[in-house]
Write a structure and sequence with these properties.
The protein is mainly alpha-helical. The chain has two domains: 118 residues, no CATH class; 53 residues, no CATH class. It has nine helices and four strands. Strands 1-2 form a two-stranded parallel ribbon. Strands 3-4 form a two-stranded antiparallel sheet. A hairpin with a 6-residue loop joins strand 3 and strand 4. It is globular. The two termini are 26 Å apart. The relative contact order is 0.15.
Length: 183
């Protein structure tokens, strides 16, 4: 499962949790009091590509974000989806959530929330950074230099860790290399 798919699931779970708990206790929305996070997804998470205008305004999921910032970022997108009729996943069924976004009946919700769907730093860089290709090659080389087998998918930003025994280490190394290459 890609990081984006995991984050899509988290966004829907967070959104579902917000609605479940919103009727209990005070009427203060924790997302409303949180400071905004400036940041932009990997294209396979939704059904279709957002318009160019929406893509330009999407928040960026940065490697240096805290878990709280990342949760707020993806939670805002998840809340938007549920507000537009995409059902939040039932507890224990979160792995089925990505498929829900690809259903035709949810296409309008996905389109309406496209400007809130976070994109990875690499997706953002691919659209905006003239040095993207050089940086992507440096990322792949950094991962390989740390002993992890990796193959790029075209010109990125996707890549595959090619040794199943290295997945956990590969993800840690990829995060380290992201911070080094994108700084």
């Amino acid at each position: 499962m890609t990081n984006t798919k995991i984050r899509v699931l988290a966004a829907l779970v967070v959104a579902g949790g917000m609605f479940v708990t919103s009727g209990c206790g005070g009427d203060k929305d924790p997302a409303a009091s949180a400071p905004p996070v400036a940041s932009v997804p990997e294209g396979d998470a939704g059904s279709g590509n957002p318009s160019a205008a929406a893509a330009a305004d999407r928040p960026v999921d940065r490697a240096d974000m805290s878990d709280e910032e990342r949760s707020r970022l993806w939670g805002a997108w998840g809340r938007c989806l549920t507000e537009h009729g995409v059902p939040a996943p039932p507890a224990g069924k979160e792995n089925q959530s990505v498929d829900v976004l690809q259903k035709p009946e949810n296409a309008n919700a996905v389109a309406a929330c496209a400007s809130k769907q976070p994109e990875s730093e690499w997706e953002h860089a691919k659209r905006t950074d003239p040095d993207y290709a050089k940086k992507f090659r440096a990322l792949i080389q950094c991962i390989r230099d740390k002993g992890v087998s990796v193959e790029p998918k075209g010109e990125g930003p996707g890549y595959s860790l090619t040794d199943d025994r290295q997945i956990t280490r590969g993800m840690q190394v990829a995060d380290e290399c992201d911070r080094t290459v994108l700084k």
